[in-house]
Design goal:
By secondary structure, the protein is an all-alpha fold. The chain has helices spanning about 5-30, 35-60, 65-95, 100-125, 130-140, 145-165, 175-195, 200-230, 240-260.
Length: about 280
């Protein structure tokens, strides 16, 4: 079953908008590595990668390896920097009530300075437009999957998501992180294929974003907790801080688990709609 040209163009335009966003963010990050822009860049690359995966599944070899490798390298370089940036934001917000956290914050600021210098080199020494030939090949390879292909692909990702949900163990937070990763894969593929399956999902995309944000908050505070516990070996007096962070993490986990079944609301692509 073929979709009309408007639907096909929407799929292609979705990629081209992301590509445009990538180059705008590249320009910004070449000047200053703000946490908000670092986060936007990593999200943009994830969304582009979801489209690449769709192309690879249905049109093997359609994505030039130089581009996919280039984007992965940029993503990986920004990972550690953003982790430190987020921890520093959390820690800075606790200094008034917990001044003993200052040595930890100072250590984060020092790490951020070093990682910022490293990432600046990435943006200074690389030019995505040097891959013009590969970008052009990618542009020519863009296509719209069949409706049945898209629905089946999303069905598989949603089933994988439910499998990850069933394996969540509240005593093992890493199982919740695995669920988060599965959700991101489903969400970004759903967005990419929304026009193909006939979904006008602005409100739905927003709800999916909020759902993922809650998972991201848990991930961020868990990283902070683990870093504090490691740092405690160097500095005494952080037990109270760690206790407060653990309480916050427990509250976030508890709230999310009480609302986890909202994931079923996102099965709008399925012929039977929401379950």
């Amino acid at each position: 079953m073929k979709n009309n040209n408007k639907a096909a163009l929407s799929f292609v335009e979705r990629y081209r908008k992301l590509e445009k966003d990538f180059f705008v963010l590249w320009s910004r990050l070449s000047e200053e590595l703000k946490e908000t822009d670092v986060h936007k860049m990593r999200t943009t690359i994830r969304k582009i990668s979801a489209i690449f995966q769709i192309m690879a599944v249905f049109r093997k070899g359609a994505v030039p390896k130089k581009i996919s490798d280039f984007l992965k390298n940029v993503f990986d370089e920004l990972q550690e920097l953003r982790d430190v940036q987020v921890q520093a934001i959390y820690a800075a917000g606790m200094t008034e009530n917990y001044p003993e956290i200052m040595p930890f914050l100072n250590g984060l600021n020092k790490s951020e300075a070093g990682l910022t210098k490293k990432c600046r080199k990435v943006f200074r020494d690389n030019d995505p437009m040097a891959l013009t030939k590969q970008w052009n090949k990618l542009d020519a390879a863009l296509f719209e999957p069949e409706l049945e292909e898209a629905a089946g692909y999303l069905d598989t990702l949603f089933d994988n998501l439910l499998t990850a949900k069933g394996r969540i163990d509240r005593a093992k937070i890493r199982t919740l992180h695995r669920f988060r990763i599965s959700f991101k894969k489903f969400r970004y593929s759903f967005e990419a294929l929304s026009s193909v399956i006939g979904i006008k999902g602005a409100a739905l995309f927003k709800r999916m974003g909020h759902y993922q944000d809650r998972l991201g908050e848990i991930q961020d505070i868990d990283v902070l907790s683990r870093s504090l516990k490691t740092f405690r070996g160097k500095e005494s007096g952080l037990q109270t801080v760690i206790g407060e962070v653990e309480k916050r993490k427990a509250r976030l986990c508890g709230f999310f688990m009480r609302n986890i079944d909202r994931v079923y609301h996102f099965r709008a692509f399925h012929p039977q709609g929401e379950l």
